[in-house]
TrEMBL record:
Designated name of the protein: Uncharacterized protein
Lineage: Eukaryota, Sar, Stramenopiles, Oomycota, Peronosporomycetes
A Pfam family annotated for this UniProt entry: DUF268
Signal peptide boundaries: 1-22
Keyword annotations from UniProtKB, A to Z: Signal
Region (Disordered): 191-214
Length: 473
């Protein structure tokens, strides 16, 4: 049995591809390592073998996992862990249970040695007991800069000890420090043009086919497209907001949203840190009072709350997934619903905050499409109102991660001097907040998201002449 464990302590069963019972014989390949693990304490004769790896990542072979045994911290660039528990072939074990606990660093100490010695402060994120299975799928959620510890406790009854019937408890206790932050950047050798031509049909099939889980690795036959002919490096940082959509898109009440509205009126930071500050400054210069606003992409109604707080005439949100925001001033649609809805109209203002960088990477169950972000930006033009006479052009506010160009698979893209001009080429850039050209050479981070203000090309000629140097790409 394979189990999925979330930080909300909700236990779900997923496809059973490694079903086992405590009495089931184990193959030689599954036997515990003869070398004692420095991370395991156990009763005599009960050397349980516990392994932690990224969920579904075929590049993490058994040999590679064992190579990591001596590392003080196990680096796993994923929000989903695969925890395997293999019992020894002894004692005719019964009534076996496994407890899995997740702890997150509070950030009081950054030193690796202090962390391993237990000197760093931690808080409990999850602590749950489950029936024995060979493998557990453990969701640890978004974690960018804080390390974690995984604790696995295994307990069972030994039916036979030294040839005699027994009811003795057997226990094993495993603790491992992990760092689930993004991996280092790597440039990929994508193959020659003939390979791409031969794989064109295969690429189309790969992009369109349904996946039980979002692919953990970039398909090699889409390498050239995702890396812009090998010029953009790849980092790994895996998320599954397709399978875990119910937890990624939580239902939000009127009372909760009204609390956010009050925070927005007080110009509080809430969701994206400094990006919220950039947004407030942008709205001072380009107010939305009395305007109809379309918000593209949302997992929490924070920017909807800002929309309400700034006295917009209407706030409409569209997303891949079904949103459940209960507030009379907010309308929500899936993309499919919006295309056939009477609310599909032209808007005065469009916001896309931390959305386009995810498009086409499969994280949210969307098809794999290397240029989905570029196409999405172009498609927004159809939602801008036509301008007449003195009517001002529609405004698009976009926030995406900015830095050295990179694809962080499958979490997001980071837009640098190669990709960012392509993203905005269908629009005229009239202003920016929080952006500097030096961002393109800054150290790696996933969270720096300036606000760019754009207009459709047709009505932006005059504004483009007045661009400040800080807003140029």
């Amino acid at each position: 049995m394979t189990c999925m464990i979330s930080l909300t302590l909700l236990l779900l069963l997923v496809d059973c591809w490694q079903c086992a019972t405590a009495q089931e014989p184990l193959s030689q390949q599954q036997q515990h390592n003869a070398k004692p693990s420095r991370w395991l304490l156990h009763d005599p004769g009960f050397p349980v073998d516990v392994r932690i790896s990224p969920f579904g990542d075929e590049t993490w072979t058994e040999a590679y996992i064992r190579e990591q045994d001596d590392a003080d911290v196990l680096y796993i660039p994923s929000s989903l862990l695969n925890v395997t528990v293999v019992l020894p072939e002894t004692h005719n074990l019964t009534d076996v249970h496994v407890s899995i606990s997740i702890f997150q660093s509070t950030g009081d100490a950054k030193d690796t040695r202090a962390m391993v010695q237990g000197e760093e402060a931690y808080r409990v994120l999850a602590d749950t007991q489950v029936p024995y299975a060979k493998s557990y799928r453990v969701a640890i959620g978004f974690n960018n800069d804080k390390r974690m510890k995984v604790r696995v406790y295994v307990e069972g009854k030994a039916g036979v000890v030294d040839g005699a019937v027994s009811d003795m408890k057997m226990r094993a206790f495993f603790v491992r420090a992990i760092d689930p932050s993004p991996s280092e950047a790597q440039y990929y050798l994508c193959g020659d043009e003939d390979d791409d031509n031969n794989n064109a049909q295969q690429s189309d099939t790969e992009a369109s086919r349904a996946h039980a889980f979002p692919p953990t690795n970039m398909p090699r036959n889409l390498c050239k497209q995702y890396t812009m002919n090998g010029r953009v490096p790849i980092r790994k940082w895996y998320f599954d907001d397709q399978t875990d959509a119910d937890r990624s898109y939580i239902e939000r009440s009127y009372e909760y949203i009204e609390e956010l509205v009050q925070k927005a009126r007080a110009r509080t930071r809430f969701y994206y840190g400094a990006t919220d500050d950039y947004m407030y400054k942008a709205l001072e210069k380009y107010p939305i009072e009395g305007k109809h606003v379309l918000i593209v992409g949302s997992t929490t109604p924070w920017y909807e709350a800002i929309c309400i707080a700034m006295s917009a005439a209407s706030c409409t949100t569209i997303d891949y997934n079904k949103l459940r925001y209960h507030h009379p001033k907010i309308k929500t649609f899936t993309l499919a619903e919006f295309e056939t809805s009477a609310s599909r109209r032209h808007f005065d203002v469009i916001w896309s905050i931390s959305s386009f960088e995810h498009d086409g990477l499969g994280r949210y169950g969307d098809p794999l499409e290397p240029n989905a972000d570029l196409e999405a930006m172009k498609n927004l033009l159809q939602y801008t109102h036509p301008t007449h006479g003195e009517q001002s052009a529609a405004k698009l506010f976009v926030a995406v991660p900015v830095g050295p160009d990179c694809v962080v698979w499958n979490a997001q893209r980071i837009y640098g001097p190669l990709r960012l001009p392509l993203l905005v080429e269908s629009w005229n850039l009239i202003d920016s907040f929080g952006f500097q050209k030096s961002d393109f050479t800054a150290p790696f981070t996933v969270g720096h998201q300036p606000i760019f203000v754009l207009e459709p090309h047709v009505r932006a000629a005059k504004a483009s002449e007045e661009r400040d140097e800080h807003s140029e790409l």
